[in-house]
Automatic annotation (TrEMBL), chain A:
It is a multi-pass membrane protein. InterPro entries: CysW_permease (IPR011866), MetI-like (IPR000515), MetI-like_sf (IPR035906), Sulph_transpt2 (IPR005667). It holds the Pfam family BPD_transp_1. This is Sulfate ABC transporter permease subunit CysW. The gene is cysW. The complex is composed of two ATP-binding proteins (CysA), two transmembrane proteins (CysT and CysW) and a solute-binding protein (CysP). Residues 74-281 form the ABC transmembrane type-1 domain. It comes from Methylomonas defluvii. Keywords: Membrane, Sulfate transport, Transmembrane, Transmembrane helix, Transport.
Length: 287, 275
């Protein structure tokens, strides 16, 4: 990726025609616009989270985070991610295996359907689970008779999050495994390796960075999802509020420290995600 | 890959894929269609033609379109600068572009509302120097959607710019073209389909966006109420039929627009000779 950049700048640098160079003022004008935009829209917001969270000092920050509601929200967010990410990872690997290692009818339709949750509004993603499991929903009656709560309870939050993060792992693996081809695996198999041996010793080492990348994005979205979860959660404090919902509730209560201390944790999650993403991209480019 | 395969695990992998896809995605999504079918045409049209509903569609699609176009302009400049010009701190800025993807939307919403509210950092300045109020106005929705849309444009344009064959530029300039002509007639037409994709992705995401918008929007019915919020309002009032009808309409309109954009792209690629 970065090698390309150098080739291009070398080419323009060595070229003799004036029409290949942007004038000095265009160059720095555009860099100024781009950097200004990124600083204003991306750096300032990040800094502001910390500024607001610590605006009344460390003590207030820790007190806000140690509130039972905030702790319950963190625990719920972790629980949801712990259920969602492994399920969607197993699915992603299975789907990528089926799609990239075999030919079958309807394959491109299947690939399109896997991406479907990305083109559905988060609010609609929540709505469909209310339509299924809500009081007037398809299965709502049966569930309420058996005293199982799905909507306005943890199962609904998990289901909506699974739906939202469904494509992440699969869509990272499919293009990579397509490009890799299956010669190496066929070689292993013809030398007598079993299916699982081939997968763990040949396939997995080749796809591990892309797999981690998909898991990372899936996890970030699972922990940060707001719209879909907001529809199915019911906003019960200490029970069905995830961390993003806790941010919303605190903000609407004019509890600035409460909102921004929780927001700072989610912002740190975003930064860690971006750093790991850069590392994984670099690793994959060298792999 | 087609020849009868010694690769194992086709049946279990495909069976599990279809099972999980059906269980988690297809069955839940189908409820939207079935619930809508239970509505009569009259009832459906009644819900959709309601003034508040029509206004929310105008707000959602209007603000998303403006935001996507603005994100298109700035996204193109950013992608151009990141690919073409060396400058210090470039890799750091490049990594930051994905922040709107990684930052939970509720956090983005709360921050943007805090910055742009009349007493906020930028809000105060915009108010006193330009007399413009951003937060709690439709303009606030546009600002939030620009934030959300920018990485879509940058990340679709960037790779195409990187792979752009600079010998085409050299050829044009050796034939006597000016730099502006080279850009307008050689570079831009080749990048345009990617730019269109990026803008339409930003637009599609903007129409459905909820978390980053509601804090800054003001949510005034008829003025700054977006479709996703109206769906939630209907749900909270137990108007399931209303919520379903609006949601289905929004999905259909979004798909229709994406289809149109795909056709436009095909046309743009043909024109620039990429097909």
């Amino acid at each position: 990726m970065h090698a390309n950049v150098h080739v291009i700048s070398d080419a323009t640098g060595q070229a003799h025609f004036k029409a290949l160079h942007d004038p000095f003022w265009v160059r720095w004008g555009l860099v100024g616009i781009a950097v200004g935009f990124i600083v204003l829209f991306l750096c300032v917001p990040l800094g502001l989270v910390l500024y607001q969270a610590f605006s009344k000092g460390w003590q207030a920050y820790w007190t806000a985070l140690a509130q039972p509601d905030a702790i319950a929200a963190m625990q719920l967010t972790l629980l949801v991610a712990l259920i969602t990410v492994p399920l969607n990872t197993v699915f992603g690997v299975a789907a990528a295996w089926a799609i990239t290692r075999f030919e079958f009818w309807g394959k491109s339709l299947l690939t399109t359907l896997i991406d479907l949750p990305f083109s559905v509004s988060p609010v609609i993603s929540g709505l469909i689970f209310v339509l299924m499991f809500g009081a007037q929903g398809w299965f709502g009656h049966w569930f309420s008779e058996h005293d199982i709560k799905v909507i306005f309870a943890v199962p609904g939050i998990v289901l909506a999050t699974i739906f939202i993060t469904f494509p992440f792992v699969a869509r990272e693996l499919i293009p990579l495994m397509q490009e890799m081809g299956n010669e190496e695996e066929e070689a292993a198999l013809s030398l007598g390796a079993s299916g699982w041996q081939t997968f763990f010793k040949v396939t997995l080492p080749n796809i591990k960075w892309a797999l981690l990348y998909g898991v990372l994005l899936c996890n970030a979205r699972a922990m940060g999802e707001f719209g879909a979860v907001s529809v199915v959660s019911g906003h019960i404090r200490g029970v069905t509020n995830t961390l993003p919902l806790h941010v919303e509730v605190s903000y609407n209560d004019y509890d600035v420290i409460g909102a921004f201390s929780s927001a700072s944790i989610l912002a740190c999650l975003a930064i860690v995600t971006l750093v790991l993403k850069s590392v994984l991209e670099w690793k994959q480019a060298r792999a | 890959m087609t020849q009868s395969n010694i690769m194992p695990g086709f049946r279990p992998a495909l069976a599990y894929t279809l099972f999980y896809l059906g269980l988690v995605v297809l069955i839940p999504l189908s409820t939207l269609v079935f619930k809508s079918l239970q509505l009569g045409w009259g009832e459906y049209l009644d819900i959709i033609s309601n003034n508040r509903v029509v206004s929310s569609f105008r707000v959602s699609f209007g603000t998303s379109l403006i935001a996507a176009l603005v994100a298109g302009v700035f996204g193109f400049v950013i992608a151009w600068v990141l690919v073409r010009y060396p400058f210090p701190g470039k890799r750091f800025l490049d990594a930051l572009i994905d922040l709107p993807f990684a930052l939970p939307t509720a956090v983005a919403g709360v921050i943007l509302a805090t910055i742009f509210q009349p007493s906020g950092m930028l809000g105060k300045w915009l108010m006193s120097s330009l007399g413009v109020q951003v937060a709690y106005k439709p303009l606030g929705i546009v600002v939030a959607l620009i934030f959300i849309g920018i990485p879509f444009v940058v990340r679709t344009v960037e790779p195409v710019l990187q792979e752009f064959d600079t010998t085409m530029e050299e050829a044009a300039s050796s034939l006597g073209a000016t730099r502006l002509q080279v850009f307008a007639q050689v570079i831009f037409p080749n990048i345009f389909p990617a730019l269109l994709t990026g803008v339409s992705l930003a637009f599609a995401r903007g129409v459905g966006e909820y978390g980053s918008v509601i804090f800054i929007a003001g949510n005034l019915p008829y003025v700054s109420e977006i479709v996703p919020l109206l769906i939630i309002t209907k749900l909270e009032q137990y108007q399931y039929a209303g919520a379903t009808a609006i949601a289905l309409t929004m999905l259909l309109v979004s798909f229709l627009l994406l289809l149109i954009v795909n056709l436009l792209q095909l046309w743009a690629r043909r024109r620039s000779g990429q097909i």
